[in-house]
Amino acid sequence: MLKKIRTSNYEGVYWHSKHQRWAATYKREWIGLFDTEEEAKRYRDSFMKIYEKRLANGTLVNPNDAQRLRGVTRCAEVGKWRARIYAEGKMQHIGYFATKEEAAAAYDSAALGIFGHTAKINGLHASNARLS
């Protein structure tokens, strides 16, 4: 029996096979699940307008969008910033930090230790400057 594949006519809208509903996203931001493809598009368009307006006037409040830092995410469960690095085929936990700058510095240290001068780092601190 062939599996029926659903595709959308709208950008950022797709069939979520696990939940059997239409899903909408915009710039890696999850918007939600919807009963119809048109409803998902409508919510995505509305979200897109609000997102772009906030981005233009500087009131975008998503902490992960303010400045994307390599290896750093906000962990809502513990209320701290988490640093992780992908190395040797595995995601390795570095730790939790009070600020995103501390987490970025920890990531940079780990990356330099693992990858040396070829490491891609955030470079927020002078002490994390690449070795020449």
Overall mean pLDDT score? 82
CATH C-level name of the largest domain? Alpha Beta
Structural class, by secondary structure, is: alpha+beta
Number of domains: 2
How many DSSP E strands?
6
Q: Could you give me the name of the CATH homologous superfamily of the largest domain?
A: AP2/ERF domain
Identify the CATH architecture of the largest domain: 2-Layer Sandwich
What's the order of the H and E elements? Answer: EEEHHEEEH
Distance between the termini: 59 Å
**Uncertain regions spanning at least 5 consecutive residues:** 126-132
Structural Rg:
19 Å
Model description:
- By secondary structure, this protein is an alpha+beta fold.
- Residues about 125-130 have low confidence and may be disordered.
- The protein has helices at about 35-55, 65, 100-115, and strands at about 15, 20-25, 30-35, 70-75, 80-85, 90-95.
Main attributes?
132 residues; alpha+beta; GCC-box Binding Domain; 2 domains; 3-stranded antiparallel beta sheet; 31% helix; elongated; disordered C terminus
